[in-house]
Amino acid sequence: MARAGQATPLHLATNAYSWHVFYQREGRNFGASLDAGLRDVVASGLNGFEPGAGGTEDVQQLLPRLRQHGLEMRSIYVNSSLHEPAEADRSIDQILAVARVVKPFGTRIIVTNPNPLRWGGAENKNDDQLRFQSAALNRLGRELASLELTLAYHYHDIELRVAAREFHHMLAGTDPRYVTLCLDTHWLYRGAGNSQVALFDVIELYGHRVSELHLRQSHQGVWSETLGPGDIDYEALAAALRRKQVKPHLVLEIAVEAGTPKTLDPVEAHRRSAEYARRVFADWA
Q1: I want to staple 179 with a disulfide (CB 3.0 to 4.6 A). Which of 55, 91, 174, 246 is the partner?
Q2: 223 Cβ neighbours under 8 A, 6+ residues apart
Q3: Which tens digit of pLDDT belongs to each residue from 112-135?
Q4: pLDDT averaged over the chain?
Q5: Which residues are CB-neighbours of 100 under 8 A, at least 6 positions away?
Q6: Can you name the residues that pair with 153 across neighbouring β-strands?
Q7: Residue of 180, 187, 276 whose CA lies nearest to 235
Q8: For the stretch 133-153, what's the b/e string if a residue is b when 16 or more beta carbons lie within 10 angstroms of its beta carbon?
Q9: Where are the domains of the chain?
Q10: pLDDT at 109 over 80
């Protein structure tokens, strides 16, 4: 909490995935020691937490712990399957149920990433499936808007295959009033073959629809231990969004993979990342 006369720090959240993978590389389980983990989140200087929810039971168990640790949950990540009718109905019902539980806590953004045909597979959705999925996203977005909540479409690298047809149709084929964009900077960069050109073109095309940013960095294509200078020019990215006159919700999603340096513990990695993000996006407070 800021003292009298001090500026309130820019609100900065973290995705739960970051902590799971950082704990995992130390042989620890973030979910199994959640209270200790949330204390680490607070110790790193973050003031928001974006969990991944499988259903209402997950969030009902989590909310009291977030309150206890003084963490906000302005957004929540819920997977979905929207390209087939029966699966889409189940997903939409589940997400709306979660939304009704989390809204009183202050959640305003529901992030969803429609599942691929098969995780790790080479198959791509056909045109009929893409049209159905975009219509389902619109339907979900309208339902959430009636609850005064925002739907943010998320993606990984899979949706950038074959001329990024799935990614683009989820935006070109939906109503901006009901479907916004969670711009996951590094999945866009990686999915386009490590291209900043593609990333900044997406900002030019859809920047006005960006409601949330997922922030990760790499060096020579390998995920960095912290958010900082690297392959993606975050200062230029912040400036591009300013030109679009949008100030998305900021969520750290630093992560580790084969080749990522191992020099910092989870708290210090997130503390340094938070400091960098608050410098780059300082005027968003």
Answers
A1: 174
A2: 186, 216, 217, 254, 255, 256, 257, 259, 260
A3: 999 988 777 889 999 999 999 999
A4: 95
A5: 147
A6: 112, 181
A7: 276
A8: bbebbbbbbebbeeeebbbbb
A9: 13-284
A10: yes
- Model confidence band, residue 9 (pLDDT cutoffs 50, 70, 90): confident
**What pLDDT, in 10s, does the model give residues 258-278?**
999 999 999 999 999 999 999
- Return the closest-CA partner of residue 211 out of 236, 187, 255, 176: 176
For 186-245, what is each residue's pLDDT tens digit? 999 999 999 999 999 999 999 999 999 999 999 999 999 999 999 999 999 999 999 999
The full 3-state SS of the chain, as one line of letters, equals CCCCCCCCCCCCEEEHHHHHHHHHCCCCCCHHHHHHHHHHHHHCCCCEEECECCCHHHHHHHHHHHHHHCCECCEEECCECCCCHHHHHHHHHHHHHHHHHHHHHCCCEEEECECCCCCCCCCCCCHHHHHHHHHHHHHHHHHHHHCCCEEEECCCCHHHHHHHHHHHHHHHCCCCCCCEEEEEHHHHHHHCCCCHHHHHHHHHHHHHHEEEEEECCEECCEECCCCCCCCCCHHHHHHHHHHCCCCCEEEECCCCCCCCCCCCCHHHHHHHHHHHHHHHCHHHC
Is the CATH number 3.30.930.10 carried by domain 13-284? no
- Which tokens is 237 given? 């990215």
Q: Which amino acid is at 243?
A: R
Q: Is the pLDDT of residue 168 over 70?
A: yes
In terms of Cα–Cα distance, which of 266, 274, 268 is closest to 24? 266
pTM tops 0.85: yes
